[in-house]
Amino acid sequence: MSDKNYGADQIQILEGLEAVRKRPGMYIGSTSSRGLHHLVYEIVDNAVDEALAGYCTTIDVSINPDNSVTVIDDGRGIPTEINKKKGISSVEVVFTILHAGGKFGGGGYKVSGGLHGVGASVVNALSEWLEVVVERDGKQFKQRYEKGKPVTPLEECGTSERTGTTVTFYPDREIFEETVFDYDTLKTRLREMAFLTKGLKIILRDKRENAEGAQDSEIIKTAGMVKEFHYEGGIKEYVKYLNKGKTPLYDAIIYCEGTKEGVYVEVAMQHNDSYNTSEYSFVNNIITPEGGTHLTGFRNAITKTFNDYARQMKLLKDNEENLTGEDIREGLSAIISIKISEPQFEGQTKQKLGNSVARPAVDGIVSEQLTYFLEQNPAVAKKICEKAILAQHARDAARKARDLTRRKSALEGWSLPGKLADCSDKDPRKCEIFIVEGDSAGGSAKTARNRATQAILPLRGKILNVEKSRLDKILGNAEIRAMITAFGTNISEEFDISKLRYHKIIIMTDADVDGAHIDTLMLTFLYRFMPELIRQGYVYLATPPLYKLEKNKQVWYVYSDEELNELLAKVGRDQNNKIQRYKGLGEMDADQLYDTTMDPEKRVLKRVCINEESNSELDVTFTTLMGDDVEPRREFIEANAKYVKNLDKNA
Ligand code: 1YM
Questions:
Q1: What does DSSP assign to residue 594?
Q2: Looking at domain 18-231, which of 3.40.50.720, 3.30.565.10, 3.30.70.2740, 3.10.450.350 is its CATH number?
Q3: CA 53–ligand 1 middle distance (angstroms)
Q4: Pick the CATH number of 236-396 from 3.30.559.10, 2.40.50.140, 2.60.120.10, 3.30.230.10
Q5: Span 484-492, average pLDDT
Q6: Is the alpha carbon torsion for 229, 233, 236, 237 positive or negative?
Q7: What is the pTM of this model?
Q8: Quick one: 228 exposed, middle or buried, by C-beta within 10 A (0-12, 13-18, 19+)?
Q9: What does each C-alpha distance from 80 to 22, 127, 140, 268, 559 come to in angstroms?
Q10: Mind telling me the catalytic residues?
Q11: What 3-state class would DSSP assign to 378?
């Protein structure tokens, strides 16, 4: 570049990219694996925008053998001519100027937009190298950048029949803690994007061989490691996917779509015969885990519309109370997706939509179209109302049951469950509770524990599967009531984290299939009724040892088969090695249990966490594991067996 060209603009560009490299977290959230994957989403977002503009039908994403990523679209191709204001090509503008792509081309708004819609220049700044190929006007153009800076000009390099943009980048190892892309993570997000953009085909390929991260947890038809997502029905198919493995209450997917006050609104929903609600809201293709004005508008609309209908059809009598939103949403799977220019995000994690215009827009469109749907489909309308009325009755019964427990506790002071061996310290930060499988292990744990800070709650047998039960039955279950009172937080709407009595809730089960099943039942209960406990990191799984190895009076506890092999290689596979395989917690005496699994100084705890970005996937997983259908569960277990290390081979 000649000195003449190296003007104020260029200096600004370099400063901009330098700012991104200095504080990557500000632009992509973090430099962990999560931030790494955001690089892909940022590039894909630009291609999705081109699809939304009506020019691109297919997006092809590849993880290459060298762990770079290539994204190809068949849109118009990024414009190549010189941008008059900046004196460089539009391609170079897109890849080197921060916040470019915000409102390009005038007119419409950029609707998708990754984390903050900051786009291609951020990816470029955080890549060791990035190459862009544009096919446009019968020609092919190419440019290469390193750490954000152009190292070649945009060159014409051939002819081309097609049009489109191809971007390949290699994440900068100086910036990212983790540079291995995870196939499953990309798969989840790309599937979501395809659901949210009807008609768009997104292909994901993993071209690595046996790489870490190159695994697919599903076995649904994969040709090698290629997956295609293409949903002509868009979010209607998303709702079908959410209801996979559940029994729908009716065949139709209720669908509303329209634009009001500049807000494009799309809603799809269907009830199933379960008692859970799976509601996911999106703004400009980004999930809003905390909801916001769009979700409020949706909830208002369905509550009002169903109550009006039920009254009008005399399904609700004059002397009966209105259905609550909760009653109507029982068993509902719904996607609420809106597109809005300049979305404002609020709340601690900036995941809650604040634009007040979204509420009346969603409310208006859903009220109007849902009313029409109910009039046209009286049989469906009746089914939904009847289910909601049943839920209303169950809610009354549950309230009575809860009132009863509350009254009891008011009478008996803090009546903790009889089986609980509580700790003496009252500072929740220091306290932990072990939920222990079986009375015998519970007994050992009670003997061994540190009485000041460790509480023990033994569970008899398996806890109730909350996925298959209604609230009144769940609250009637002794094991579940024991946990609720022991934790102190109450559940659902009445959940209050400030009342939590232990900052570590540790699930301690045998290292076998039954133990794994109890873990899953426990986690299902916590996820459905006290998800905040998991979100805030209070829930743990204990890891009891699988083996005890003794040699010359020395003792080792071993937690996996690999570890056992490593240890045997080290100490030698001699005759006099004594290897004991623990079949269950109950086989250890109190001291052994404390030493291996409970002692805060030595034990290994696994913290349970929720990945908010793939929450709908998790929802489907719980249904698959705990719901009615056997076939999807069998498929899931077969597909995931390879991830489970300690399955009891004798079981
Ligand atoms: C694999 C990544 O970036 N595709 C892409 C980007 C653009 C266009 C087409 C495009 C946009 C417009 C006109 C317009 C972008 N262009 C710009 C800018 N794929 C990928 N495909 N023509 C082509 O918005 O008017 C920014 S993004 F600013 F140069 F127009």
A1: I
A2: 3.30.565.10
A3: 10
A4: 3.30.230.10
A5: 89
A6: negative
A7: 0.77
A8: middle
A9: 29, 22, 10, 40, 58
A10: 437, 510, 512, 514
A11: helix
Interstrand relation of 539-542 and 605-607 (parallel, antiparallel or unpaired): antiparallel
* Annotation: CATH topology of 416-544+603-643: Rossmann fold (3.40.50)
- Confidence at 627, pLDDT banded by 50, 70, 90: confident
First to last CA, the chain: 70
DSSP notation for 387-409: HHHHHHHHHHHHHHHHHHHHHHH
Q: What is the pLDDT of residues 342-370, one digit of tens each?
A: 899 988 778 899 999 999 999 999 999 99
Identify the band that residue 6 occupies on the pLDDT scale cut at 50, 70 and 90.
low
Mutate which of 39, 44, 46, 80 for ligand 1 pocket (most atoms within 8 A of beta carbon): 46
28: which 2 tokens?
């992509």
CA dist 297 and 291 (Å) reads 10
Ligand 1 in reach of 165 Cβ (< 6 A): yes
Beta strands in 273-344 (DSSP E): 278-283, 286-287, 332-339
For the record, the structure tokens of 651 come out as 């079981």
